Amino acid sequence: MTDRTAEDDRSKPSIARIYDYLLGGKDNYAVDREIGDIFIRDLPGSPAIALANRQALVRAVGAIARDGISQFVDLGSGLPTADNVHQVARRHRADARVAYVDHDPMVVARSRALLATDDRATVVQADLREPEAIYHDPDVQRLINFDEPVGVIFSGVLHHLNDAERPADPVRWWADRMPSGSRFYISHFRSGENGETRVLEEKLQGSIGRGRWRTDEEITDLFGDLELLEPGLAHCSLWRPDPAPGDGGADSVMGGPDLTVWEQLISCALARKP
Ligand SMILES: C[S@@+](CC[C@H](N)C(=O)[O-])C[C@H]1O[C@@H](n2cnc3c(N)ncnc32)[C@H](O)[C@@H]1O
């Protein structure tokens, strides 16, 4: 399927375009909005979940870059939006290089258009369940020096793999292959063990055949032997929050705000390869 054909395929919903709709974007079709509206109706905080996820990703990329890492592999990168990984990383490290990976041809076409004149960022169309192909992709090899630590990002994507698709496998593959000091970021739908998330899981499985809310324990297990960095697994909204003006800093914020039930439905953590 060429990018053009895929871009014109308005008959099937796409995870990337549903997410774009929830974030208030314009890169979506009626078929995507239909599913997005089910989210909004049955889980009215869905836009808040999408936003909390995105904001945590921005903070995580900043944290990884400040730790001295200037190369990133972003798996399941999604449609370009505000504050994409290469833009955030370069605020901290001007030389940052990013390989975006997504299996959705429309995501790849839009990302290519954004990155057309950028020789330090690329996008590869691939399934993250095939890490070997991603690693050996010539563009990825050109940009990323795999002898140096890498920031490997799985933001909002592993919950789109069902258990039978073994979501921990790609994390383990990259963890085994990357040098010591590499960072691994995962954000993931967190099971509220409530009616809302059960309904949504059913809707997603019924419409696009995938979508798994996992418990804290299941999400933590995805990291395998990697060393979780402070504060460990946390709700995205509470993961290293930016201090509010005049605030005492992250510690005081951690104990502070009351989260909505929605914000409790997405968690994240950053880990380091020892
Ligand atoms: C919800 S979006 C998240 C986008 C971005 N990472 C973020 O957190 O804002 C999930 C993205 O993962 C992509 N995706 C889902 N399953 C994938 C797979 N098996 N391989 C590669 N990409 C995948 C979808 O196409 C979509 O663009």
Output the keywords.
274 residues, alpha/beta, Rossmann fold, 42% helix, disordered N terminus, binds S-adenosylmethionine
List the helices and strands and how they pair.
Blueprint: H1 3-8, H2 15-22, H3 30-42, H4 46-66, E1 71-75, H5 85-92, E2 97-102, H6 105-115, E3 121-125, H7 131-136, H8 138-143, E4 151-155, H9 168-177, E5 183-189, H10 195-208, H11 216-221, E6 227-228, E7 234-235, H12 250-255, E8 266-272
Parallel strand pairs: 1-2, 1-4, 2-3, 4-5
Antiparallel strand pairs: 5-8, 6-8, 7-8
Helix pairs in contact: 2-3, 3-10, 4-5
SSE string, helices as H and strands as E: HHHHEHEHEHHEHEHHEEHE
Shape: globular
Q: What ligands are attached or bound here? A: S-adenosylmethionine
Discrete helix count: 12
Main sheet attributes: strand count, strand direction, barrel closure: 8 strands, mixed
Q: Radius of gyration in whole Å, from Cα?
A: 18 Å
- What is the average per-residue confidence, as pLDDT, rounded to a whole number? 88
Overall helicity: 40-55%
Q: Find the count of extended strands (DSSP E, 2+ residues).
A: 8
Could you say what the CATH architecture is?
Answer: 3-Layer(aba) Sandwich
Unreliable stretches covering 5 or more consecutive residues: 1-6, 246-256
Structural class based on helices, strands and sheet pairing: alpha/beta
* Main CATH class: Alpha Beta
CATH topology (level 3) name: Rossmann fold
End-to-end C-alpha gap: 41 Å
Whole-number tally of structural domains:
1
Strand content: 5-15%
**CATH homology-level superfamily:** Vaccinia Virus protein VP39
